[in-house]
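Dear colleague,

Thank you for sharing your sequence with our group. We've completed the structure prediction you requested, and as agreed, I am returning the results in plain text so they can be pasted directly into your records. Please verify that the sequence below matches your submission; if there's any discrepancy, let me know and we will rerun it promptly.
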Amino acid sequence: MMASTKQKKTNSTIAGQHNIGLLLKKRAEISANLEAFVEFEKQRRFTFFQLNQRCNQAASLLVDKGVKAGDRVATLLKNGIEFIEIYFAVAKLGAILVPINWRLAPAEICYILADAGVSTLIFDEDFDHTLMDIQASVQKPSSLREYLRVSGDDMAGSDHAPESGQASAKATGEDYTHLRESCSAEEPPIGAYDDELLFIMYTSGTTGRPKGAMHSHTGMMWAQLTTMSTSDMRGDDRFLLPLPMFHVGCLLPMSQLVHRGATGVIMREVDMAMMLQAIDQERISIFMAVPVLLQFMLLIPEREKYDLSSVRWIATGAAPVPLSLLSDYEALGISIYQAYGLTESCGPGTLLSPHDAKTKAGSAGHPQMHTKLKVIDEQGNTIQPGSTQVGELLLGGLHIMKGYWNNPEATAEALKDGWLYTGDLVTIDEDGCITICDRKKDMIISGGENIYPAELENILTASPEVQEVAVIGVQSQKWGETPLAIIVAVAGTSPSKESLITYAKQHLAAYKVPQLYEFVEALPRNPSGKLMKPVLRKQFSEPAPF
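Please find the predicted structure tokens below.
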């Protein structure tokens, strides 16, 4: 399933058509001097006019490098103004952004680059060593022809400088910053509208291979409208952006801030003490987090030094928020919105509002505005609200993905008759609120990151010391959940926790590598040979020691 590469030769919005890049152009016209984004660590500040100028320069640079409508442009960037300007530049050109999780291992990144057919990769200097591994691994011929390196040189208003000796480890790539600064800031021709693709976001695959969820300009537009009309976002809000922009949980609000005309305060990456400092100094009013971050914020010893009174509400996802934690934040005068959503839905799904948080404790709430849902049994029959029966949750709406990139089989399984089959098992109460009973295909959520056991099992099984492996999630006070690998060793070998961690680190992002291991003689299976994970969950039910 590919995007059209037909170039639109116009700079004006055709009636009824949408391009996400034009939101920035329009916002720069009506709110030119309002503060758009702040890079907190560097104290760089940008108005909407300045951001649009940088975006147009980035678009001009990409055109000079041969990027055209339908081409895939990948980013391997930490949070920063460069990510934002590239996102809107790619949108205006009608190219397709592929934001890559920078926590992935080089082999995982190489797979995404090849699967998406990426032509241009824009990377952060922090990932020079990763890029050298990637450049050594990319097979020729390859669609990947351009590497642009974002350095720390563009530091106006900042005392930041690259670490000494960093230049000696540079990956091959032209200097993005200097090239952009020399480019025209004229508005580029608009290259895509409506149902044409805006971005492809890869999700961890239940079969061990990530899948690229395809989202269009229309989809992102409706995702923004849905979240803005369900929660209380205001034009004078200051939104803290600590979560990585390669996740839909940060990409959506980042894009939405331009639509709404509010201010985003960017954190390069999560740092708990710095989050408190940013909230205090920048008078943050709202932000997005995961429950484990909310817990950590309360435990920071110096928390009392900071004024958090500006915070009106926090949106959180990935797991229900305990009542005790809700009470702790209520005492601070802060409300909590609890969201359920997926990469495949471009973020929106359901939302539990602060006033329902106690009466509907454990629930994921109602469908968001412009989102529809239903729950079905194994025969496909709709389960009516108020039933105690567990069924699969289906989501619908104009913000749902168009499918998985180059994967018609997975697309056909996930999208049927206008519904997204989430694979999540839920109940629906008499008020239409859903409660998650079991997560999609054994997925583990650790510190807000999705981890799929099948991917870990595929990697560990390839170890010469491992005959069989099953990975399950166990409770963790620190991370919410953490993976436990249950190992059957190859005869004549004696694998250790340390040897398996070392092996896994060669193939997996660090956050996916299991830190807990159990060694058994055999894995439990039913008469047909199917692995019985419920037996393992019962057998190894003790929480993690961290």
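Summary note from our side: Residues 48-64 form the longest helix (17 residues).

Kind regards,
the structure core
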